[in-house]
Design brief:
alpha+beta; two-stranded antiparallel sheet; about 25% helix
Length: about 140
């Protein structure tokens, strides 16, 4: 699954002059093979940043936060971050089988319907690739 480098949902993650980073704590963000290969090209080893859970690789947490989150709540690999991170706070609702805005995001009310719709197509492709059983009726 190829993505444009600039693709993503644009969210201003600065609250009270500081980067939020809430989505990067206790992350369970799934990784595609393309995500893993892109990150490995930066010099990281898979075992350093990824763990396998139920057959799907996910970002690893270190001290309760994403391996790539620095002390100022900024992503060390922002330009190369996984597709799920680019789409967040748009997530997949299992019950409705639709893209929704994650209620945990403090900026959830800032996501436009246009951004939600834009992310839904790619999110469903991601789900189909990693969790095909979720899209079955």
């Amino acid at each position: 699954m190829r993505i444009r480098k600039d693709f993503g949902v644009r969210v201003d993650c600065i609250i009270d002059g500081k980067f939020c980073g809430r989505c990067c704590y206790q992350t369970e963000m799934p990784l595609t093979e393309e995500d893993i290969e892109r990150i490995k090209k930066l010099g990281f080893k898979r075992e350093d940043f990824a763990i396998r859970v139920d057959g799907v690789y996910r970002l690893k947490n270190v001290n309760g936060k994403c391996y790539f989150l620095d002390d100022s709540n900024r992503c060390k690999i922002y330009e190369h971050r996984p597709i799920g991170c680019r789409i967040y706070p748009v997530v997949f609702d299992i019950e409705s089988k639709k893209a929704v805005v994650d209620e945990l995001c403090p900026m959830k009310d800032k996501i436009s319907k246009k951004d939600l719709k834009k992310a839904e197509f790619l999110l469903k492709r991601l789900i189909k690739k990693l969790y095909p059983q979720l899209l079955q009726r």
